[in-house]
Amino acid sequence: MLNTTINIPRLNLLDFTEGTAEQRKQFSDDIGKAFTDTGFVTVANHGMNKELIDELYEVVKQFFALPEEAKRAYEIPGLAGQRGYTAKGKEKAKDAKTPDLKEFWQRGQTIIGDETLRASYPENVEVRELPRFNAVTEEVYRRLETAGRALLKAIAGFLELEEDYFEDKVINGNSILRAIHYFPIENPDEIAPDAVRAGAHEDINLITLLIGASADGLEVLTRNGTWYPVKAYGEDIVVNVGDMLQRLTNNKLKSTTHRVVNPPKELMKTSRYSVPFFLHPKAEMSLAALENCVDASHPKIYPDCTAGEYLDERLREIGLKM
Ligand SMILES: O=C(O)CCC(=O)C(=O)O
Ligand SMILES: [Fe+2]
């Protein structure tokens, strides 16, 4: 069948954060059902208005328009790209040979108080040329973290866990806001034939919240092996399951393979920007399968490990950590 219909519902986060008991239950059921099926939803009323998203794209474009040497000054050796700038040609999908056609910036957690935890994270890198860049990316980080915590409460409901199951694990967690620039390709004949904007991959973290990209290109792999474009309406965000949540739920929730394809030839000289927020827990969180996701017909798939150990292994596989 060529024309696959796939379940990527549009959910209203206010139904969960401000809704009646019935609306909250419906939201949990809907996100749970989509996450056991395609692993993707789109979400409206996530706490960021159009002005904030527009300003985010404005500062992100200004940053990537800085001269190459200015950007390279924000590459921090030894941090595996976890803070600051990562240049073109560095990151590739796990099983790919050729790096993705992108450059990116990463901002991490800001800890207030708790000196020990603070010392365990690298400092954020501030862009001296663009003061608004720092303020706006920090604001977006906070808002996506808040939206992500609400979504995890809804997911906890679906998994029949206490609503606050994820809270102490993700508050002050190791989440990352990544601003990506898929750069223009001036001469398409000069790139490797297998070079793509983002090769087929699964995200590492618990869930990803993606702010509507500036152009088409995101696709998910459906069960029958065809690729299906993901489009969010207006300012909606796209939310998907990552490998950590798949592991914790013993594959009940699906970390679906996705990619970003190159534009048609006539648009090769244009940029694409996107801003995913990778919601990570603290390193000490156990990713051992939840008891209620393991039974005789669903034997335990993965060996136990912590989020920190798992992240380390994955950063090596994608070429960011040596
Ligand atoms: O740019 C996009 O639309 C998606 C990016 C993505 O999948 C990722 O960075 O993990
Ligand atoms: Fe991704």
TrEMBL record:
SUPFAM superfamilies, A to Z: Clavaminate synthase-like
Top-level taxon of origin: Bacteria
Any Pfam family: DIOX_N
Pathway the protein acts in: Alkene biosynthesis; ethylene biosynthesis via 2-oxoglutarate
EC number: 1.13.12.19, 1.14.20.7
First-tier enzyme category under EC: oxidoreductase
Keywords, in A-Z order: Dioxygenase, Ethylene biosynthesis, Iron, Metal-binding, Oxidoreductase
Domain Fe2OG dioxygenase positions: 172-281
MF-aspect GO terms: dioxygenase activity
Catalytic activity: L-arginine + 2-oxoglutarate + O2 = guanidine + L-glutamate 5-semialdehyde + succinate + CO2; 2-oxoglutarate + O2 + 2 H(+) = ethene + 3 CO2 + H2O
InterPro entries per record: DIOX_N, IPNS-like_FE2OG_OXY, IPNS-like_sf, Iron_ascorbate_oxido_reductase, Oxoglu/Fe-dep_dioxygenase_dom
Family: Belongs to the iron/ascorbate-dependent oxidoreductase family.
Protein name: 2-oxoglutarate-dependent ethylene/succinate-forming enzyme
